[in-house]
User: Which sequence fits this backbone?
């Protein structure tokens, strides 16, 4: 169940992101042509108000189709056709290219309409017609384009703030020294540690609740013993050895949490905003560190995200909310990187287009996207390497 909740949570975060694009696009006059939950073939769809709403076969996130992301260019439609179709429609295609070259949009629209009967399922023709529409993205003023693109990441940030406010209002759990659960097949279970034991010392060191995990980790696999209070008697547990598990030395037990009172709404809001600021600062430092070879172990893929979210769901509602808020912020900040096809890249292109006074062609966008895709593949490699090495340590 926890795995399903984790996957669903990740899908919801992506859907929240796309919803931000959708509603702001409508607000500034760029009516999206599609809004889908999931990816792949449509299971259910309905057109209303010029927008095709649907549910796709793969329930992972969603997508929004904003019309005319790129300025139409001569040859775009021709390249999407098979050689036989190019020969058959050569006169219309040549006339279309001339019209686009001269910015004669009425003629281009008329030719595109004529071609619909010959190319009823051609996506590039549909893209061309959307790009020639009055509400096409590439035509809009720069503030509208930036608003629509930035809305996705900013919606994730806003959602993270809401989750964190709820987190702080619910109240956290303070750690105690009482063992709540001993995990099977771990050193603690084999050594005889029991639920209800109160930990007094570890490796001859008296420990506070918050120091239990760090003290065990500091043993680095060397033999050590516990002293616990059980039914009013001091009992020695061990010696035992902690084993390396997901980057830390553990013996396999969970500490009981003691509920703490939650914050008031104003205080929770302040704490939530402060956490967002701190997380943003640390993430920017981590991303900058990647370019000098540091911080590569901090990158995670969807595999690691689902694993951590699943674990947090099993632990408590507060842990789950905190992890989902963190993933929201990470998704927002990653999308603001200034490379295509990420949102930050579209914002950069919009600003540059405003400076040069002319929109870039689809080919220019594709060339710039190659940089972003290379970065994405690099980050995906790091994330998968880290996630699978953590899962098998």
Assistant:
């Amino acid at each position: 169940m926890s795995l399903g909740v984790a996957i669903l949570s990740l899908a919801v975060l992506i859907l929240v992101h796309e919803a931000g694009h959708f509603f702001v696009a409508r607000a500034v006059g760029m009516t999206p042509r599609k809004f889908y939950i999931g990816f792949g073939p449509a299971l259910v769809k309905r057109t209303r108000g010029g927008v095709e709403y649907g549910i796709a076969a793969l329930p992972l996130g969603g997508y929004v189709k904003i019309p005319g992301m790129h300025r139409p260019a001569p040859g775009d439609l021709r390249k999407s056709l098979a050689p036989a179709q190019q020969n058959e429609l050569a006169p219309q295609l040549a006339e279309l290219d001339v019209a686009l070259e001269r910015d004669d949009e009425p003629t281009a629209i008329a030719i595109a309409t004529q071609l619909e009967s010959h190319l009823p399922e051609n996506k590039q023709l549909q893209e061309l017609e959307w790009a020639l529409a009055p509400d096409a993205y590439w035509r809009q003023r720069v503030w509208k384009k930036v608003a629509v693109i930035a809305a996705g990441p900013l919606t994730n940030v806003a959602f993270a703030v809401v989750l964190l406010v709820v987190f702080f209002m619910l109240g956290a759990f303070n750690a105690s020294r009482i063992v709540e659960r001993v995990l099977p097949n771990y050193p603690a279970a084999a050594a005889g540690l029991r639920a209800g034991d109160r930990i007094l010392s570890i490796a001859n060191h008296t420990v506070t609740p918050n120091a239990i995990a760090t003290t065990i980790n500091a043993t680095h696999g060397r033999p050590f013993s516990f002293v616990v209070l059980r039914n009013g008697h001091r009992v020695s547990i061990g010696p035992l050895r902690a084993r390396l598990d997901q980057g830390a030395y553990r013996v396999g037990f969970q500490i009981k949490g003691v509920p703490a009172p939650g914050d008031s709404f104003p205080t929770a809001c302040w704490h939530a905003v402060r956490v967002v600021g701190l997380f943003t600062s640390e993430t920017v430092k981590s991303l900058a560190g990647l370019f000098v070879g540091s911080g590569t172990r901090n990158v995670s893929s969807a595999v690691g995200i689902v694993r951590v979210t699943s674990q947090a769901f099993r632990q408590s509602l507060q842990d789950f909310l905190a992890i989902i808020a963190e993933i929201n912020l990470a998704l927002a900040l990653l999308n603001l990187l200034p490379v295509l096809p990420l949102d930050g890249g579209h914002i950069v292109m919009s600003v540059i287009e405003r400076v040069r006074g002319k929109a870039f062609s689809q080919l220019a966008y594709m060339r710039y996207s190659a940089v972003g895709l290379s970065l994405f593949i690099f980050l995906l490699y790091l994330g998968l390497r880290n996630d699978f090495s953590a899962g098998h340590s």
Observations:
- Residues 197 and 230 are 5 Å apart (CA to CA).
